[in-house]
Design goal:
The chain is an alpha+beta fold and 474 residues long. It folds into three domains: 36 residues; 225 residues, DD-peptidase/beta-lactamase superfamily (Beta-lactamase, 3-Layer(aba) Sandwich); 153 residues, D-Ala-D-Ala carboxypeptidase C, peptidase S13 (D-tyrosyl-trna(Tyr) Deacylase, Chain: A, 3-Layer(bba) Sandwich), CATH 3.50.80.20. 37% of the residues lie in helices and 20% in strands. It is built from twelve helices and 19 strands. Strands 4-3-19-18-17 form a five-stranded antiparallel sheet, with helices on both faces. It starts with 6 loop residues before the first helix and ends with a helix.
């Protein structure tokens, strides 16, 4: 039958076409359901149990017959097939594919180290995997794993106001008011103001002594002596102290290029500065200290007047790894030293890291550590150390890392086949580019990798992204 080429004829054809499609779809659905229930009955007769109800998941909950599933990184993890064994041919193709991706960056480079291991720690790709090179910020994986092991994911830092006696009925606090720090890297000035507000609501009107800051929980120099001279004065090279406020930086406004911008400058003399600031906060609240602010250890029998708890350690570490916060890493290193070795300085923390790696059977060829953040250009780590560390600590580290191409320092990484399949930590210094984390491959499940390139004359970041994309398709 011929139809007039008009909107009326088009609507008629559309209605008839849709009706035919609906009938065909209904018939197909009935056939599919018949096959499904036949298979279901067969499964039931064979196993004696029914499979769980099919559920569509969206957001953070799963409700039968409700929200549609979203194509997220978790979706890949949920539907991945059981990991297959790596054949000799696949290993050979993997080596050729990854080496080919790396060639543009390692030609003329001063050093590199690459490793990929399966979930059991077995090496499936190795190119100078045992050569220790400068790691930059991927070194934070070491302090993150070591601190989780020693302190526990639920560990919290405590910052306290304390005194010898409680607040008197007349609102007077006899003696000094101590501010006792434990190394919390997340403490903010607003937290201290809230603490002072609580003291004021409790009746405090006058401090007979003065504000005294106790920063004895951590020791060592404020600035790591192994950091470069060009790092001095930069906000990413903030000092380390048991009393850390606002990341141990001072916010100010400066004219840069004719435009006023916010800048953060590292504190100098953290304890004295914080004591002075808390003294000013008390005065602003109408609480007058009689003596000048100072520093010193609080008496062991002090009465706690206010106790501020940080977020759990796993939350702090997620922040550290997402944005590559050097200050968090340095604070954690000394806290780790106190907990694991009884020495709350950099040396104690590094010794604790070495003990942790040895205990977990992780190889450490050429390992040299001088800080927690990876900021020192003297640090050296081999790719096999990082890859094996990730494999050994997958449950605890995996969820703390940013999603490649979407989050944190990896937001601008231009992944293609690996998009939604990679969680990793990036690292950069003047002549260092590195990436280390996990990839959920198509056929072999999740693997851990570490790709480190020093002194490349090419574009090492683009090369590393290309290598991760090639790894994901295996």
């Amino acid at each position: 039958m011929n139809y007039v080429k008009s909107s009326v004829g088009f609507r008629r054809r559309s209605k008839r076409s849709r009706a035919r499609k609906r009938r065909a779809f209904a018939l197909g659905l009935l056939v599919s359901l018949a096959v499904f229930f036949a298979l279901l009955a067969k499964h039931h007769s064979a196993s004696g149990t029914l499979p769980p109800a099919i559920v569509a998941c969206g957001g953070s909950s799963c409700v039968p017959g409700k929200s549609k599933p979203r194509l997220t990184e978790r979706s890949f993890a949920a539907v991945q097939t059981p990991a297959l064994q790596w054949s000799a041919d696949e290993r050979n193709r993997l080596w050729k594919g990854l080496h080919g991706a790396f060639v543009p960056a390692i030609s003329g480079a001063s050093g590199w180290s690459f490793a990929v291991v399966d979930r059991d720690g077995n090496t499936i790709f190795d190119e100078r995997a045992d050569r220790a090179v400068a790691p930059a910020s991927v070194q934070k994986l070491v302090v993150a794993a070591s601190a989780l092991d020693a302190l526990g994911a639920a560990y919290r830092f405590h910052t306290m106001f304390a005194a010898r006696e409680g607040i008197g009925d007349d609102g007077v606090l006899e003696g000094d008011l101590w501010l006792v720090g434990s190394g919390d890297p997340s403490l903010q000035s607003s937290d201290l103001r809230n603490g002072i507000g609580m003291l004021a609501r409790s009746g405090l009107r006058h401090v007979d002594g003065g504000v005294v800051v106790d920063a004895t929980a951590l020791t060592g120099p404020e600035l790591n002596p192994h950091w470069g001279a060009d790092d001095d004065g930069q906000d990413y090279a903030a000092p380390t102290s048991a009393i850390s406020v606002d990341g141990d930086t001072i916010e100010s406004r400066e004219a840069i290029g004719g435009v006023e911008q916010t800048v953060w400058t590292p504190m100098r003399g953290v304890v004295r500065y914080v004591a002075s600031q808390v003294n000013s906060m008390l005065i602003a609240r109408g609480i007058g200290p009689a003596a000048r602010p100072g520093a010193g250890p609080a008496p062991l029998d002090s009465l706690v007047l206010w106790d501020h708890r940080s977020a759990p350690l796993q939350t702090l570490e997620s922040h550290m790894l997402f944005v590559s916060d050097n200050h968090y890493a340095e604070q954690l290193l000394r806290t780790l030293g106190e907990e694991a070795t009884g020495t709350p300085d950099d040396a104690g923390g590094i010794e604790a890291e070495r003990r942790f790696l040895d205990r977990r059977g992780i190889p450490t060829p050429g390992l040299k550590l001088f800080d927690g953040s990876g900021l020192s250009s003297q640090n050296r780590i081999a790719a096999i150390t990082l890859a094996r560390l990730l494999a050994a600590c997958e449950p605890s580290l995996y969820s703390l890392l940013p999603l490649g191409g979407r989050q944190g320092t990896l937001e601008d990484y231009d992944f293609t086949t690996a998009l939604g399949r990679v969680r990793a930590k990036s690292g950069h210094l003047a002549d260092v580019a590195s990436l280390s984390g996990y990839v959920t491959t198509i056929h072999h499940g999740r693997v851990a990798f570490a790709f480190l390139i020093d002194g490349s004359p090419g574009d090492p970041d683009a090369t590393i992204v290309r290598a991760v994309d090639r790894l994901a398709v295996f």
